[in-house]
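A common beginner's mistake is to predict each chain separately and then try to dock the pieces by hand. The better habit, illustrated here, is to supply every component at once so that their relative placement is modeled jointly.
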Amino acid sequence: MTTFRGLTSTRRDLLKGAAAASLAGAFPMPAIAQGAPLKVGLMLPYTGTFAKLGKFIDDGFRLKVEQLGGKLGGRTIEYVQVDDESEPGKATDNMNRLVGRDKVDVVVGTVHSGVAMAMAKVAKDTNTMLVVPNAGANDVTRAMCAPNIWRTSFTNWQPCFPMGKVMYDAGHRNIMTITWRYAAGLEDVEAIKESFVKLGGKITEELYLPFPQVEFQALITQIAQKKPDAVFAFFAGGGAVKFVKDYAAAGLRTSIPLYGPGFLTDGTLPAQGADAEGIKTTLHYADDLDNPANKAFLAAFKQKTGQEGDVYAVQGFDAAALLGIGLDATKGDFTAKPAMYAAMEAAKIDSPRGPISFTKAHNVVQNIYLREAKGGLNRYVSVAHANLADPALGCRAQS
Amino acid sequence: MDLATFAVQLLNGVQYGLVLFLVASGLTLVFGILGVINLAHGAFYMLGAYVAYWLTLKTGSFLIALAGGVAIAFVTGLLLESAFIRRLYGRDHLAQVLLSYGLILVLDEVRHILFGKDVHSVAPPEFLRGSFKLTEVLSYQNYRLAICLFCLIVAALIFLVIAKTKVGMIVRAAAENRDMTRALGVRSDHVNRMVFAAGIALAALGGIVVAPLSTVYPGMGDQMLILSFVVVVLGGIGSITGAAVGALIIGLTDTFGQVLFPAVASISIYVVMAAVLLWRPHGILGARDV
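With all components supplied together, the output reads:
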């Protein structure tokens, strides 16, 4: 009997407890809200074709947070992970769940452009802060631009625009382009066309395949028949590997040089092997960028994950750095959005990819590098365009 | 398009068609004879390619990978038939679609656990490396040509087995009228098991021979599954000859569609399929409703 006595509470005790609890609920103290962990929703592809990219962005983000002492603006971080499966059809639901049910403060994501566009829409409607760590769809920071939408990766326009000058300076005048017929492919071709044609070059033919078809033989035969000076190609992942190998197998690698945005050879070099040797690409990162920030980053990433960091990890890393700057300015107060955004707009980050800053449309301003695939690495050749900012056409100027 | 280019594109189309036939023949066998819609056919194609990658890496020989991959797929097919597929005969298509969709998810996860998510490439056998000149600038891989020959040989073998052997006779009878064949006392469960395993082995075989050409990556089976269904429906369900004809039509349509009508390349094969089905609702050589 005695053992039970200590546990039984009288009705009076219960009432007292309930009253105390409701009082505490009625008068929340601001200090508690500030000390509460910041909820970060990571909406990334953790399965499917882009799974590795999603994991690297996730790892990069967490690495930066760890380097900042596990806190952003003095607040600890609570992560909510959602696998977006690179599935645009599920994007709106996933995003609504993060915002509505999980009540995250900020969402970081994603890789797939179609998913990112849907996320940007929800972010805009609910005024939730969104940081895009990869998807390049121009519109996210053009027509869809908003004070709460940020991007630490690139617009599709950015890596491709400098390629026009690179190819023209290499002496090419008549080139062909080949890519998948989908948003990213069309935006890429549009960007190189803009610079190449302005310089006086000519795009003799634009070849397109249905996305994500990888039977390239018919179009490669057409390239061999037309014999352009060079070819600009955009594919990614398995498609990039197969295209580069098919191109080399058709004997065109040495006779008609291949160029493209960095995705053609990024993360795919081990599978492409010698067939990728000598391919020149433009991107905002190179594996052997010789700056202290990059060396420190690669060493830290390797120590944390046991793997070689890449451009995706850098984009995740910088997303955390950007958030950190915003939250530092408000001492962790996430409700002071204008002050936070102002600090982020003024941010100058010494990123592993070189110095970066942000435009009024909240897209990253960065160097675009010319790289050459050599011995399994995308090696730095030169700066193709320094501090390139996206023109942000269609984004109404923001305060 | 000059004659030389036309000839090269014709070769491209035929080669693509032959690979499609190899994969689709397994699907049409399972679909036509067992009446089972196997959505996991593409997943076995992918798994075949990954097994080829893995065995080539471990043994250094593509030929061992070829034999080993087909054997593994065949045994897997036997086991799956005994455990799951046999319960589906005569059931409605929804049950079949659900089970085989589940199989896709399981196989994809197995692939993830065993081989990870990376893209890989497979080296063709030593004696087939290299290429020869087709035109002044264009080379053609020896391996591509070898695939054409290999697919033709496999096709001939399938036709021989079906036309000349007792097993083939049973298969033909079952494709014609499953219930009547059973009523006549043919031991259907044994034949069924063999047919299903052969179908899976053919899917894997397709993945294996394509691996050195196509690179090995997650999701590579998805598109192949859709194309295989198009080929099977076009040629007529259950008809091997139909699958061959359908595969060649799709290969040529896709190749010339991309060259001549690039703007509508993504729908060209479906337009052809729709047109053929209007003309022959059972498919070109089919006897049963689609």
